[in-house]
Task: structure prediction
Amino acid sequence: MPMNRRALAAAFPVTVPVLMGYLAIGMAFGFMLQAIGYNFIWAFFMSLTIYAGSGQYLGVSLLSAAAGLGTVALMTLLINFRHLVYGLSMLEKFRGMGWRKFYMIFSLTDETYALLSSAQAPVGVDARSFYFAIALLDQSYWILGSVIGAVAGAVLPISTEGIDFAMTALFVVIAVDQWKAYRRHLPALIGGAVTIVCLLILGQLFGQQQMLIVSLAVIVALLLALRDRLEEKEGTPC
Result:
């Protein structure tokens, strides 16, 4: 459809930073997966059906350790619990998207969320098609990077020690961009403050996994309580 082509053309420049990041961290994931004996086919289908960068990095460790299904489910819930917060803030933006809403929910990664929170559809481009194109392009970058990494890992003797830090580095870059893009920093300050307090108070008592659950629950509760104050109309970024 012409509108879809226009939406893709408009979305591509917006997603170029994610393209560069996802190729790098996707390749890192592919390297890691290949290193424990899973080839590019596994990398392709994991990125197609799971599509959770930090969750997939964790999945490499769980596969390597032959973890049980219960452990996999719990750890995946813990590491991706933050997506509940993302979804709450996207309810209005995804309204009226029809069947595409299900894919938008599935594809709401940290980086895609950051783009959807700040990007504006150009004049003449349907906003919903624009958002869908952003999500679709981002996942295609991740799949491409993971497959390239797995193939390269099969033919090149590359050490994967420390390579998982690539995901953390990209997340920090996205967070800094978001901080610069908006005048209001209360959500970020709430998240940082609650996490630090919970780490100091609960980290030693219950461990980091339990601390993470508590801190995320508190953050969600505070964001919901302050939702009216925190809501920012589109088009107000600096």
Residues 189 and 195 are 10 Å apart (CA to CA).
